[in-house]
């Protein structure tokens, strides 16, 4: 009999191109299931993308090696059917009594139909939304169950212009999906547009009553000596009788391995009507001088473990939820002197040091180990903020968990970019995605998924663009600050005159409509970020180099070590740039075709002498990369 809790379905998957499978989803999950990785079936990468599965089976070359991406058929040329794939697996699950089983997809790109033991269910469109399917009544009595999922690419995958461009032809902006997949000035196109079951799949066993999307919020008084932990949860009774419930919330701190200190334990009782949903807010938990969570470089990242459990009379434990929580308060305002955006954490000003983050891997191979390595690297560089750029992902909980651990504040944007949403060349659609309600569904679900992480510091409507007016207004209302968080002078006031802050969707951190508005760049939406190429070193020290208080993004040279070049390119890619003299006397680097394909930015231009040549002409790749390190 299955135990309560989650079981990940992250191995044993098979995949096949839909046009090569004769059976229907009903047949695949009843009379004709695939039994091995024989054509057209192959071993699948789940979570992952279709392209990741094809690469695993050596059916496509590595798109990030040399010019191999050019050998992979683009969806614009193949049609969406070519990258529409079946995914199949089996799972063991058997329950009885009043237990229920949910099949959960944390994200699929872009839409899908799911078949379990011959029964069909539809997953609606949208790359950034969770799906939960109650499969209790369709499980096989012996516990051996069959699962098949057919996944369809985005509706508007677009075409790649001959010279590439920012977001290709911008068609991807019509969908609620990652926009970088059509290519950018730092990225070649992703041929399948990241189609696939790209995030966690799991089986979740619960009792009669389930817990959904708890919201944790901390408030502080008396100069952070006194604090309260607020918690609101959603509860659902899935049965045809009234459920008498006992709710517990406990807070612990880890002293050492396998040893924890119980900080708080509270029990509450309530009844939930048959087949009903309700919200419940716990009485606030009081803490005296809690250990605070601080950004990297300002103090420790202290985390408490919060566990919430619901027991149902006559049935025992029904569901539980656990999360690491950090006591901290984030404030963000505009400096009247500079017009730049300011941040404070726990009342202390933070000098922001950070950079843009698109995603960890273009095939969405987003392992915990890779997240930990990448985020620790940012912390080791003394960064204290990561900006999750609007053309990329709503990052995953594992990303945020490591930002919590290493003290990286996170600026999370929604899926709008200037290039694809009204400001690009060619001119793109200024009305954002075609389905505004779908965008808001994905946004609200993302907020619920991520809001409990102390590292999350700011919501932003989009990159170099604001969402369409109706979407922007809805987000401003959804993310309106709770009165306690609207001004720092509330720090010593009690909350008895206000609603509990955990009852808001998220009223604890600011929402800014776009990356060049309201304290970023010139604050008016003009293109005043950048620059994006090599600069004369002395220019950085001039008063007029950048005239605004907070630059939301800047780009420049970035050369890896020679070993990386050799690992990612064939020998013809090891040739260092040639220097060409222009008629005006300036020097111009001429990179080899592979470097040019992968968006190499040179160390010279018409205004800047070659910065590598200042150390002497580079003899070979190793010498070139060593001089680059000296320059940095």
From TrEMBL:
One of its GO terms (biological process) is carbohydrate metabolic process. Residues 210-328 form the Glycoside hydrolase family 2 immunoglobulin-like beta-sandwich domain. InterPro entries: Beta-gal/glucu_dom_sf, Beta-mannosidase-like_N2, EBDG/EBM, Galactose-bd-like_sf, GH, Glyco_hydro_2_AS, Glyco_hydro_2_cat, Ig-like_fold. The keyword Hydrolase applies. GO terms for molecular function: hydrolase activity, hydrolyzing O-glycosyl compounds. Residues 37-198 form the Beta-mannosidase-like galactose-binding domain. Keywords: Glycosidase, Hydrolase. Pfam families: Glyco_hydro_2, Glyco_hydro_2_C, Glyco_hydro_2_N2. Residues 342-473 form the Glycoside hydrolase family 2 catalytic domain. Belongs to the glycosyl hydrolase 2 family. This is Glycoside hydrolase family 2 immunoglobulin-like beta-sandwich domain-containing protein. It comes from Aquilegia coerulea. The lineage of its organism: Eukaryota, Viridiplantae, Streptophyta, Embryophyta, Tracheophyta.
